[in-house]
Amino acid sequence: MQIREILTLKSDAIHSIAPTDTVESAVTKLVGLGVGSLVVLKEGQMVGLLTERDVVKGMVAQGCDLKDAQVSTIMVTDPVVANADDSIDYARDVMTKSHIGHLPILDGNSLLGIISFHDVARACLKEANFENSLLKRYIKHWPE
C-alpha cells in the first residue's frame, strides 16, 4: 500500500500558519482545528512544520510564556518528508526511527498533505486484516 492511498481517505485541507505568526495563534489554531501539526508556509512554500511537541519543547527552551514568540523560533525548519509513492511501511519506519508523529507528503516539490502516525497505524491494520482474511480463505476449513 502506498502513502497516496492514505491521502485519498483524508480531507484535502492542509492546515497552515505563517512563520511570523505568534505561537499563541498557532496553539489556538491547533486546538480549534483539533490537529497536532501545522505546515508553516511562506509565500505558498513549506518552510517548516510546527507540532504540539515543538510547542512543548519551545516552552522548555524559551520559558513557558511563548504567546508572543514567532512560530519561526520553535518550528522544525527541515522536517522529515515522504513521497506520495512511498510505501506505508516506509512511512511507519521513518516515523518510528525519527520519533515523529506527523509526516508531510510531497509529490515532487508540491505538498500533497500531512499524515499522522495514527493514519499510518490505521492503514497497517487494514492491510493486515485484509491479508489475514485471504489466508483464512486459503486454509481449508478455517472456522470463521
TrEMBL record:
Annotated coiled-coil segments of the chain: none
SMART domains: CBS
Record keywords, A-Z: CBS domain
UniProt superkingdom: Bacteria
Classification via Pfam families: CBS (PF00571)
Residues of the CBS domain: 9-66, 75-131
UniProt-listed PANTHER family: CBS DOMAIN-CONTAINING PROTEIN, CBS DOMAIN-CONTAINING PROTEIN CBSX3, MITOCHONDRIAL
Name this polypeptide is given: CBS domain-containing protein
Organism annotation: Thiobacillus sedimenti
Lineage summary: Bacteria, Pseudomonadati, Pseudomonadota, Betaproteobacteria, Nitrosomonadales
